[in-house]
Amino acid sequence: MSDHSQFRLLGERRFLPFFLTQALGAFNDNVFRVATILLIGFAMSLPDEQVSFYNNIAPALFILPFFLFSASAGQLAEKLEKTRIIRFVKLFEIAAMAIAAWGFATKSPWLLLFVLFLMGAHSTLFGPIKYAILPQALHENELVGGNALIETATQLAILFGMMGGGALMSLGGAHGPLFASIAVLCVAAAGYLVARAIPPAPPTAPELRFNWNIFSETWRAMRFTAQDRTVFNAVLGISWFWFFGIVVTAQLPSYTKIHLGGSDVVFTFALALFSIGTGIGSLLCERLSGHKVEIGLVPFGSIGITLFGIDLYFARPHAAPVQGLGVMPFLHAPGGWHIALDLALIGMFAGFYIVPLFALVQSRAERHHLSRIIAGNNIVNALFMVAATALSLALLDALHFSIPQLFLVAALLNAVVAVYIYTLVPEFLLRFVDWILVSLLYRIRTEGLDNIPEEGPAVLVCNHVSFMDSQIVLGCIRRPVRFVMYHKIFGTPLKPLFRAMKAIPIAGAKEDPELLRRAFAEVDKELAEGNLVCVFPEGGITRDGDIAPFRPGVERMLAQRPVPVVPMALRGLWGSIFSRKDSWLNRARLPRRFRARIELVVGPAVPAEQATAALLEAKVRELRGDCA
Predict the structure, then answer these.
(1) Which of 62, 71, 88, 164 has the most CB atoms within 10 Å of its CB?
(2) Looking at the predicted structure, is the pLDDT value of residue 385 above 70?
(3) From CA 617, how far away is CA 628, in angstroms rounded?
(4) What angle is formed at CA 142 by the lines to CA 271 and CA 17, rounded to 5 degrees?
């Protein structure tokens, strides 16, 4: 299944109707918002002070429902069948768009701002369902691809929605508000009809007692979100993405006019570059990650955002000498192509950054709390959006920064925040180093990964072929793994990497009995905390390509704490420069097989009471077969 393209999901009912529903909702939201902005800002001939007031209050009205209703929305998404809620939300959208049509007809700014508040409530209700329904509809190895398609569709829907809203208001002339009214009503109705085809998604916590107190429930949602440190830091990473995105996109119209010298067409072009870049990065995530949740892409994305964000400042730090340029004159002006490339690459690396974070939250969070964790994520997102707006106002108005200087500050802050998050959760950076290293050296095929339990403790046993075995296993398994490692291998130049992996050094009873005692105590502690522990029971790397007899250390671990044992086998590594087939002199040469094809095969778990060293050795030999 993992060999198929993510686009296969677009042909399946378990994904396509939901995909179209959320895309139509994002499209309609932006048609309405742009039409409202153009009506208030241009068509009604209001004083500049009044337009500025409406423009400043609009984002606050849209974000307010995230603070008020996110926790309640999370409860509903867990207690009730999700498809029913989606249909209610789409009916709610039709009602909101009917009010919007009346607001367009009467040219009432306050009525349209009220609808903006309702659309914020619409997004608040839909948010916990949007990301909680995917783990129910998709398999584990489809999560990255599904999130990539959702993120791509959202970005393109925002882009086309903004373009559509502008086109309706401009092409319609005096009848623009009428055309916009018809469009938003029709799209809302289409969204409801498509939503009726979404398959049922059973509640994950039907016994949940609904808490009507929004303050205590908001606090509870935040506690659920903070329970797992990795999940919470992923939420912080997602919220930072929104912070950075608000800083850039909110200033893009003024940046286009003042610093790019472009017309509204160039603004649309710049937004398209960013949106399409994000879509491309999102879709590439599945290919680069090998159909699994690869958080190693997150540091890769943050590095790219920082580098090209800084480069964007240097590409055009001053105001453009000419105004009102079209797309081609802008591109042919000095630095035009440079700026266009920066915007597209910032978007692409943003896709690398955000998709694995959403997939990580979906895969690591407890399933019966996921909707409330997504609700907590939405609350944190809203706080970061407010902070982004406050920072922009402070730097631009109070300190008189230019917009390119604001972008530079955001890019540098992105680097600081990234280092902070990766210090809190070294797993992000570790997976990045591991992903780069293993992806450059090998092409890996996996089989039977679903035999590894999604949660709870287990011991993994594997044959030991090379110095890269732990990195390969780490790169293939979604959950964090603690490796028990011979202390002399632990002490090689890769020691900083092994230490970051929280590897457990071990020695023989005659070598260092105290180190042996500490190793078994550490293994028991990790298993007690519900983690995976990987052991190479041969006691060392093979010198002849064969599997050496398994030592009884696994039996001692299981005697202390009986847990399932999962046998695994590595194939194709014997003869690589990291194996012991050749002398050190021969191993120093260039590898004979660059990006060699290797395999990790995982067998069914063995109950603790049956897991003897001899049985596990036989299982691993059977899995490896004749492929050394």
Answers:
(1) 71
(2) yes
(3) 15
(4) 65
Report strand pairing: 596-602 vs 442-447: parallel
Residue type at 481 in one-letter notation: V
3-class secondary-structure state, position 608:
helix
Confidence grade of residue 521 (pLDDT, cut at 50, 70, 90): very high
> Is the Cα dihedral 64, 254, 283, 594 positive or negative?
negative
Please state which of the ranges 23-37, 248-262, 431-445 shows the lowest mean pLDDT.
431-445
Q: Determine contact, residues 392/247, Cβ cutoff 8 Å.
A: yes
Q: Nearest CA to 28 among 20, 39, 18?
A: 20
Place of tokens 């039907």: 206
Question: Considering the entire predicted model, what is its pTM?
Answer: 0.73
3-state helix, strand, coil in the chain (%, to 5): 70, 5, 25
Antiparallel, parallel or unpaired: β 481-486 and 504-506 = parallel
Looking at residue 550, the DSSP 8-state letter turns out to be P
| pLDDT tens string 171-185 | 766 788 889 899 999
Average pLDDT over residues 342-360: 88
Which helix (H) or strand (E) segment holds residue 437: the answer is helix 426-441
203 backbone φψ class: left, alpha, beta (φ>0; ψ -120 to 50): beta
Please, which residues have CB within 8 angstroms of residue 314's CB and are 6 or more apart in sequence? none
Residue 261, sorted as left (phi over 0), alpha (psi -120 to 50) or beta, turns out to be left
Mark out the alpha helices in 316-335 (DSSP H runs).
327-332
Over the chain, what is the mean pLDDT? 84
Q: What is the pLDDT of residues 60-114, one digit of tens each?
A: 788 888 888 888 888 888 888 889 999 999 999 999 999 999 999 888 989 999 9
The one-character DSSP state at 394 is: I
Q: Rounded to an integer, what distance in angstroms lies between the CA atom of residue 352 and that of residue 283?
A: 9
Q: Is the pLDDT of residue 585 over 60?
A: no
Torsions phi, psi for 100 (to 5 deg): -60, -40
pLDDT band for 461, please (50, 70, 90 cuts): very high
AA identity, residue 3 = D
Gap between the Cα atoms of 114 and 120, Å rounded: 10
Which of residues 619 and 272 earns the better pLDDT score? Answer: 619
Give the pLDDT of residue 595.
Answer: 65
Give the angle subtended at the CA of 159 by the CAs of 153 and 161, to the nearest 5°: 95
Nearest Cα residue to 38 out of 170, 187, 174: 170
- Closest C-alpha to 600, from 423, 450, 440: 450
Instruction: Give the containing element (helix H, strand E) for 569.
Output: strand 565-571
In DSSP notation, 175-189 reads GHHHHHHHHHHHHHH
Domains in the chain, start-ordered, CATH in brackets? 1-201 (1.20.1250.20), 228-424 (1.20.1250.20), 436-624 (3.40.1130.10)
At residue 626, what is the residue type?
D
CA 232 to CA 245: how far, in whole Å? Answer: 20
Q: What is the pLDDT of residue 501?
A: 75
Q: Retrieve residue 316's tokens.
A: 């055009």
Which residue blocks in 196-289 are alpha helix, DSSP H?
214-227, 229-258, 264-289
Distances 403 to 51, 317, 334, 392 between C-alpha atoms, Å:
21, 9, 19, 9
